[in-house]
Amino acid sequence: MTKLRVLMILCVGLLLFSVVAPVAAQELELWTFVNTHARWFREQAERYADEVNADFSLNVVEIAYADMHDRLLISIQSGGVGAPDIADVEQGRFGSFLRGGGDPGFVELNALLDEGGHTENLVSARQALYTSMGSVYGIEHALTPVVLYYRADVWEGAGFDPQTFATWDDFVEAARAIVAENPDVIPLHIHGGLHELLLRQQGHDYFNAEGDVTIDSAESIALMDWLLALKEEGVAGDPPTGDALWAAFKDGTLISMVGADWYAGFFKDNAPELTGKWKAAPLPAFEEGGRRTSVWGGTGAMVVKTSGQVEEALSFLEFAMLSIEGNVRRFELTNLWPPYIPAMVNERLHADDEYFSGQDLGAVFADVGPEAPPQWQSPFRSQLNSLRSAAWQDVIDGVRSPEEVFTEIADTIRDEMEFES
Amino acid sequence: MFGRGRKIAPYLFISPFFVGYAIFFLYPVIQSLQLSFYRQVGLGKAPRFIGFDNYIRLVSKDDLFIKSLTNTTYYALGSILIIVPLALILALILHSPKLRFREFFRFLYFTPNITAGVVVGIIFNLVFEEQYGLINNLLLAPLGVDNVRWLREARWIMPAIIILGAWKWTGINAIYFMVGLQNIPPELKEAARVDGATRPQVFRHVTLPLLRPILAFVLTIAIIGSYNLFAEPTILVGLEGGPNNAGMTMTMYLYTRGFRELKMGYASAIGYSLAVIILVLSLVQLILIRAFRED
Questions:
Q1: Interchain CB distance below 8 Å, B42 and A394
Q2: Which chain B residues are within 8 Å of A76, Cβ to Cβ?
Q3: Which of A20, A24, A282, A345 sits CB 3.0–4.6 Å from A292 for a disulfide?
Q4: What is the domain extent for residue B283?
């Protein structure tokens, strides 16, 4: 009998603990796939606990890119089982949440943004990526202005200053001279996003404002042909991916990178030994006086609808993402250029950056930021990216022509659009 | 009252398995069969009945499905024609009483099987790396072979996955074969030798026929395993199967359609197609090696 009583007390105790425990401390869970974001979120959570809600704590979970989005999608599909309260969703994957035209499973932020007076403080072209049929679901982390990162020691050592390159022709001419001296060097690295972001620099994209697929446009094909011609003459190259990519940066094979603001943080995390060797310049334009930047990537923070603590999650996001302090701290920690207009003029964005040879990196982003082109969201973007990445190596190797591949991808997407309509 | 309770009790004791089976296996199996006749795309959308449209689209219009089927069959052939014979050879060597440190080798060949798939994937990414990788630098370079772009060139991806498969599965299959070999009474072989049979003849006419149950088991497992292949290629070349989707297997295709694009109806149709393919192939294979024959 006593045994039974002890067992019963234990059971009741366990039950009480499991019910009461989560309520006592207000812990929210946040999923992200970028360690730079995680670092910043953790710091903001501490600041929020200090200044707003002492009971608040944020469990920041880092999960690899593909895994995180897949798991989030599945947990929302299954009614929020195991879903976090807040999630970072990359713009390229947000489309898959919109697929089919149903409810994407995130809290609509229109009220928060409008009533808080934040809407006009955010760059609308970026917010468009997380907006569907008038409902805003995410707050952008970064303006993602694209610049030309380059190894200052190598380029300047060869007698060139990439800051003075007005057009891509200038870049190519200098690159030819460098390759003539050292054939092992790859001045232009054709990474998986290069074609896409250069296309946007020209004012086009894989989808247009109406949602039609345009990867097979004449401009898109011509641009890829141009990149392949550069590869043919040795100015551009197709370096390895993953860890081997960083090895190629470190051993000096790669001497530049056309990348967005977030790439600055990637450099610091993955190649700390190159401190003091890099600089950044506005992108060369395609024609004299043309646009000197593009946009690449971008991630929106979203509140998952099934969260039991939506109010607290929204309050935290407002505190961290819609404040000057939060945005400035993010730049200081991760080099993400704020998409939040009031923060853009903050002088703390203009500190000398030791990694980038003491350069004022913020000045480069601020300089090109206003020219950032728009990018259009599509529920089919994620599938298009999959198709494109599968065919990419064939295009790079010259096995199949850009025209053939891009037309095939566009036709597949059009067929999918029709099948699902 | 007591009597009735006694009759129920045994069923109650074995019920957890059946309840679990019904909830986690039977229900999804039936539900997904139903779903395969519906179009369900995305979050929060009600499914719509479309009859056989998903299946028709799969075989008539979906190049990627055909591609993933071809890729998977490629691996299955590699598994049956390379990995299984290798395992048999290994088992014959390990079975030899003359071999020293036999237990050590057995342990060694078993270790790939207990190594986590993710760890294997990461290590093999380094093994297959084009410039710094082990195979290119230590095995091929001394032979004067140029660097093979294992994971970046479509035609090398499946061979790479088969090499990984061989590393992982040969050992455990060899252990199955060894069990079979140990169960063959030595008298039979001795009798054959006394009758003047050569060693190859003994193998062909005594050992191999007696290994048939084990062979049937290993081949069936190999076919099922091949058509369910997921973890290794996913980690080596990503869920899309790398360049040209050359490493995309049917389960990876099912996963991307179902969980990445949330086309649950379509993914269910892929799943059922896969089940039918495995069933048919396993039956054909069992008939071919006459596993059903009564001896």
A1: no
A2: 43
A3: A282
A4: 55-288
- Are B239 and A104 within 8 A, CB to CB? no
> What is the Cα–Cα distance from A182 to A361, expressed in whole angstroms?
29
What are the tens digits of pLDDT across the range A92-113?
Answer: 899 889 887 778 999 999 999 9
What residues in chain A have per-residue pLDDT under 50? Answer: 1, 16, 19-24
Task: Please indicate whether, in this complex, the C-beta atoms of B238 and A391 are within 8 angstroms of each other.
Answer: no
Cα nearest neighbour of B247 on chain A: A390
Report pLDDT digits (tens) over A386-409: 899 889 989 999 999 999 999 999
Q: Report the pLDDT value the prediction gives residue B3, as an integer from 0 to 100.
A: 53
- Residue of B261, B263, B264, B266 to mutate when probing chain A, most A C-beta within 10 A: B261
pLDDT the model gives residue A328: 97
- Residue in chain B lying closest to A420 (CA): B41
Cα gap B221→B173, rounded to integer Å = 10
A351's torsion region: left (phi>0), alpha (psi -120 to 50) or beta?
Answer: beta
Q: Is residue B33 part of a domain?
A: no
Helix, strand and coil in chain A, % to nearest 5: 55, 15, 30
pLDDT over 70 (residue B246): yes
**CA contacts within 13 A on the Cβ side of A371:** 20
* Residue from the list B240, B244, B262 with its beta carbon closest to the beta carbon of A73: B262
Please state whether beta strands B48-49 and B38-39 pair in parallel, antiparallel, or not at all (unpaired).
Answer: antiparallel
Record: contact B239-A240, CB cut-off 8 A:
no
Q: How far is B121 from chain A (nearest CA, A)?
A: 13
What gap in Å lies between CA A353 and CA A402, rounded to an integer?
39
For residue B111, give both structure tokens.
């270790």
Q: Does B211 fall in a domain?
A: yes
B255 domain-assigned: yes
> Which pLDDT score, from 0 to 100, does residue B295 have?
56
Write out pLDDT tens, residues A308-353: 999 999 999 999 999 999 999 999 999 999 999 999 999 999 999 9
Size of interface A-B (CB pairs under 8 A): 86
How many domains is chain B built from? 1
How high is the pLDDT of residue A23?
47
Q: Do B45 and A394 lie within an 8 Å CB cutoff?
A: no
Residue B10 domain-assigned?
A: no
Element (DSSP H or E) covering residue A256: strand A256-260
Q: For residues A326 and A44, is the Cβ–Cβ distance under 8 A?
A: yes
Find out whether A226 and A172 touch, Cβ atoms under 8 Å: no
pLDDT-above-90 percentage for chain A: 78
Q: Is the pLDDT score of B107 beyond 90?
A: no
What CATH code is carried by the domain that includes residue B179?
1.10.3720.10
